[in-house]
Specification:
This protein is mostly helical and 230 residues long. The chain is built from nine helices and no strands. The termini are close together. The N terminus is likely disordered.
């Protein structure tokens, strides 16, 4: 892309990172509920979690405090929303449908990333001509694209409780799946170890840098090239 969409202004960074992040993670969660409802589990619908109202999905720490702090210090911004409730037993084919429900979130993020790329193709020419408003829109779209790609790939990691773990569970033999499911009890400590402690001890074992960032950059490059912004 030929236009710089970053700024050292803290308010600008917050506005162009926090809003795209909230939209991305809320639609990620809603998509799980939409697909679950289509496959026979109306739990999310019954609890009002298919609403686009972000208030119904906001996790104070993961959706607001952490992303806001990261945006202020200029660090990579990420976060999470309250998981949409899905009851596997209510699905018509629990093993198969649970995998599809899990994949719905990353699929939504990839679709949103494509829409962001198309939007960038439309606004970047005006931003390059010096339009402040279009530069702000371009910044939001660029960050929205990268956030969605990161969420899609990050959530496909086969680590409970990520979406990728539900896919692995559905592919394993039932006995192995039950044992694998038990890892969910240690989800947060496991994430803390893999994503924070391990990279500090052994930088070469950085899960995000090795498994998430390369495909995110590759897909972003493809999308930018697709809309003529590479």
């Amino acid at each position: 892309m030929k236009i710089a969409v970053q700024s050292d202004n803290i308010v600008f960074r917050i506005a162009t990172w926090l809003v795209p992040l909230v939209i991305a993670i809320v639609l990620h969660e809603i998509s799980h509920g939409w697909v679950a409802n289509a496959f026979g589990d109306p739990t999310a619908k019954e609890r009002g979690r298919l609403s686009p109202n972000p208030i119904r999905h906001v996790d104070p720490l993961g959706t607001v405090i952490l992303p806001l702090a990261l945006a202020v210090v200029g660090a990579p911004v990420f976060g999470w929303a309250k998981p949409v409730p899905v009851v596997a037993k209510r699905l018509r084919n629990p093993r198969v449908h649970m995998m599809i429900v899990a994949l719905a979130g990353p699929a939504m993020n990839l679709a949103l990333a494509l829409l962001a790329a198309l939007g960038l193709a439309a606004v970047v020419p005006a931003a390059e001509q010096g339009s402040t408003a279009m530069a702000f829109v371009a910044a939001n779209l660029a960050n929205f694209l990268m956030i969605n790609l990161f969420l899609a790939i990050f959530n496909l990691l086969p680590i409970p409780p990520f979406d990728g773990s539900h896919v692995v569970e559905g592919l394993l033999p039932r006995s192995a799946a039950r044992r694998y499911r038990r890892l969910g009890r240690f989800g947060f400590p496991l994430l803390l170890f893999l994503l924070v402690i391990l990279p500090t001890i052994a930088p070469d074992a950085n899960v995000v840098a090795r498994l998430v960032v390369p495909p995110v950059r590759a897909i972003a490059g493809f999308l930018f090239g697709l809309v003529g912004l590479a």
